Amino acid sequence: MGTSNTKHCIFCEIVHGAGEASICFEDARAMAFMDIQPVNPGHVLIVPREHHDSLNEVPEDLALHLFHVALKLGPVVRRVARSSDLNLVVNSGEAAGQNVFHYHVHLIPRRLGDGFDIPLPFAGSPMPDRTLLDAMAARIISELRDPVRRVTRDTVAVA
Ligand code: AMP
Ligand code: ZN
User: Is 104 a catalytic site residue?
Assistant: First the structure.
């Protein structure tokens, strides 16, 4: 089951016991294992057993379950990694920096001065005029309200 599993997928191999991994959590729908190239010790990847390429394809209840697993693992990883801070990261799609196209959530313990960065606010972006922010918010509200034009999660048309 799942979506677009036509190519070789390293995370499917791990899920099916054919790939080497250091597994730290398993249940009926999800697994978590140590990232092979951790930002910091304790960097965990949470993956669905079922193959889905990216967040666009993951069924909502499964996406919520993975987040639930992340919430369960977060305090444990922080304790084990002796780190009070963490990033939960999802890279969904090539332009967003996804490299392994089996949906996954990164749980990354963080330390001051570790050199890793998700630079927000982005220094390359100016702060737009409030009218532009209001206009974008209004467009989103109108799409949410319009049952005809409302797109489903996997039918988003890119203008
Ligand atoms: P992303 O850029 O969000 O797709 O991240 C992919 C992550 O998967 C990277 O942090 C890699 O270090 C990690 N990774 C790739 N192959 C493996 C593997 N065989 N076992 C564990 N982690 C892996
Ligand atoms: Zn897969």
Answer: yes
The CATH classification number of 10-110 equals 3.30.428.10
Q: Which atom of ligand 1 is nearest to the CA of 20?
A: 19
Q: Using alpha carbons only, what angle is made at residue 101 by residues 44 and 149, rounded to the nearest 5 degrees?
A: 110
| Ligand 1 pocket member 36 (CB < 6 A) | yes
Domain ranges of the chain: 10-110
pLDDT in tens, the chain (159 residues): 566 656 799 999 999 999 999 999 999 999 999 999 999 999 999 999 999 999 999 999 999 999 999 999 999 999 999 999 999 999 999 999 999 999 999 999 999 999 999 999 999 999 999 999 999 999 999 999 987 766 665 555 554
* Ligand 1 pocket, residue 108 CB under 6 Å: no
Give the Cα separation of 51 and 110 in Å (integer): 28
Q: Which atom of ligand 1 is nearest to the CA of 10?
A: 19
